[in-house]
């Protein structure tokens, strides 16, 4: 179990990825994202997760440069957007992301959504494999892939995805997907771990939080880690960025973990990967 914000999980290719990081979905380009990245790094975060579609890669890069922390100490993730899928267009999209970020390499590059055309995401994956073999990215993976998408990808993949980043929280525990990923050595990572704030009023979670002297958010994020799921909550407020990471000094009991597991109702706050951008 991770005991500090700097603790890492080892991906199947030996690369170490922090268990905990900052997500910047819906964080505005410009000073908002720059300050949020700087606040996170100043307070010990090493992992920053962005994507082409967030349109804030330039600000993320600026925040990294202004943080004063050496590039090699950080773990930076970005993702190829749906419209850029395909072999050549993915290679081009990667260059654009690197240029915007002002970096020489990425630590993790993901296919953002599977879409409905498996041949297309397979071609995208071939591009990611090339980037990986060329040393442009330290690890490659996918996002929002269900079990059947992973099975389809694995039919032809030369390199197995290292990470699958999905919507994951107590209302969407994705048990089958989690065990598939564990069995295949694919690290599961949670986006929207707090269900965009919707879980913070849950009575069960608040009752547990009171018992440990923690906030509802801290209990949920701790539940992620004890389930061996990497997590990247988003915040633009420094005090919340600090609070989110203050989860390494307590451990949820087996009984409390089970109570939170019992909240699952297979309910999403984000798009369903089966229908997301059906036409792309």
Automatic annotation (TrEMBL):
InterPro entries found in the cross-reference section: AKR, AKR5G, Aldo/ket_reductase_CS, NAD(P)_OxRdtase_dom_sf, NADP_OxRdtase_dom
Entries under Gene3D superfamilies matching the protein: NADP-dependent oxidoreductase domain
Statement: the UniProt record of this protein carries the keyword Oxidoreductase: yes
Chain positions recorded as substrate binding sites: 112
Site (Lowers pKa of active site Tyr): 79
Keyword presence, NADP: yes
Active-site residues from the entry: 54
MF-aspect GO terms: oxidoreductase activity, acting on the CH-OH group of donors, NAD or NADP as acceptor
Keywords annotated in UniProt: NADP, Oxidoreductase
Highest taxon in the source lineage: Bacteria
UniProt-listed PROSITE patterns: ALDOKETO_REDUCTASE_2, ALDOKETO_REDUCTASE_3
Domain NADP-dependent oxidoreductase as annotated: residue spans: 30-264
Pfam families: Aldo_ket_red
Family according to the record: Belongs to the aldo/keto reductase family.
Protein name per the record: Aldo/keto reductase
């Amino acid at each position: 179990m991770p005991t500090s914000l700097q603790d890492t999980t080892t991906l199947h290719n030996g690369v170490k990825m922090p268990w905990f990081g900052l997500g910047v979905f819906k964080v505005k380009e410009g000073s908002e994202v720059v300050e949020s990245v700087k606040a996170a790094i100043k307070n010990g975060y090493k992992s920053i997760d962005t994507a082409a579609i967030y349109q804030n890669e330039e600000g993320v890069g600026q925040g990294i440069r202004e943080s004063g922390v050496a590039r090699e100490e950080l773990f930076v993730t970005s993702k190829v957007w749906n419209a850029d899928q395909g072999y050549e267009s993915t290679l081009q999209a990667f260059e654009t992301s690197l240029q915007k970020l002002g970096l020489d390499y990425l630590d993790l590059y993901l296919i953002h959504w599977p879409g409905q055309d498996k041949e297309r995401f397979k071609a995208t994956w071939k591009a990611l494999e090339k980037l990986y073999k060329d040393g442009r990215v330290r690890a490659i993976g996918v996002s929002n892939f269900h079990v059947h998408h992973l099975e389809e990808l694995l039919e032809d993949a030369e390199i197995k995805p290292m990470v699958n980043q999905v919507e994951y929280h107590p209302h969407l525990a994705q048990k089958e997907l989690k065990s598939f990923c564990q069995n295949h050595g694919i690290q599961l990572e949670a986006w929207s771990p707090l269900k965009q704030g919707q879980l913070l009023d849950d009575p069960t979670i608040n009752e547990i939080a009171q018992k440990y002297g923690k906030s509802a958010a801290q209990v949920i994020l701790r539940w992620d880690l004890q389930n061996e799921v990497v997590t990247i909550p988003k915040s633009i407020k420094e005090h919340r960025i600090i609070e989110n990471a203050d989860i390494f000094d307590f451990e949820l009991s087996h009984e409390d973990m089970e109570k939170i597991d019992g909240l699952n109702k297979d309910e999403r706050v984000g798009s369903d990967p089966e229908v997301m951008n059906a036409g792309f």
